[in-house]
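Narrative of accomplishments. A recurring question from our advisory board has been how the design workflow behaves on a single, concrete structure rather than in aggregate. To address it, we present the structure tokens for one chain from the evaluation set, followed by the sequence designed for it. No filtering or post-editing was applied between the two.
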């Protein structure tokens, strides 16, 4: 079964970006950074989501991200599904921090329960078929709206959402051009999906 071993972000200044992610979210080995000045404009078509246990932890992580230089796109708030907010890192990557809980059950922590790479795609059904053909197993599927794949031992779960719906959820305009500035590493080899997201060969053993 194909799974994600690593996520690489193309950034202008890897050292400064690493300092930001360490200060903002306590991330170290979860993402890779690569120097790049590839042109990009507008919505890059994806978000990285951090799932945590309670609202206090959401607030804490958003607070440290803003203190480290992030920009608020959607202030943390309650919704039908739980509680969460959206920030944009200085390198341009959009991050969503959320919990399904609507009330705190204890003191705030900085523990991240799950990281999800959510790709905004033109046709969820077509992209689902593509990824199944490339060895990913479906965990949840809601027609042409949303698909989530089995993560297994992967540090990052992959999910698909309609691009316009994802942009609306993040509080940004759906248009964008140029590079995604994202490369997904996995044991399925090198390929590019229907929406231009590139995969490269990487294993969990070498990703650690």
């Amino acid at each position: 079964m194909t799974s994600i071993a690593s996520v690489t972000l193309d950034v202008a200044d890897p050292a400064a970006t690493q300092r930001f992610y360490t200060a903002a979210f306590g991330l170290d080995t979860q993402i890779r950074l690569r120097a790049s000045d590839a042109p990009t404009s507008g919505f890059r078509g994806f978000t990285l989501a951090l799932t945590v246990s309670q609202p206090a932890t959401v607030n804490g992580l958003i607070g440290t991200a803003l203190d480290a230089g992030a920009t608020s796109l959607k202030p943390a708030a309650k919704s039908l599904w739980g509680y969460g907010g959206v920030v944009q890192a200085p390198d341009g990557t959009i991050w969503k921090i959320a919990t399904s809980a609507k009330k705190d059950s204890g003191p705030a922590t900085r523990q991240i329960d799950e990281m999800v790479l959510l790709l905004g795609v033109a046709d969820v059904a077509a992209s689902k078929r593509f990824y199944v053909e490339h060895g990913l197993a479906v965990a949840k599927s809601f027609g042409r709206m949303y698909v989530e794949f089995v993560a297994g031992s992967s540090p990052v779960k992959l999910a698909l959402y309609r691009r316009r719906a994802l942009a609306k959820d993040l509080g940004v305009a759906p248009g964008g051009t140029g590079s995604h500035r994202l490369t997904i590493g996995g044991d399925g080899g090198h390929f590019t999906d229907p929406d231009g997201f590139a995969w490269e060969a990487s294993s969990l053993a070498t990703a650690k």
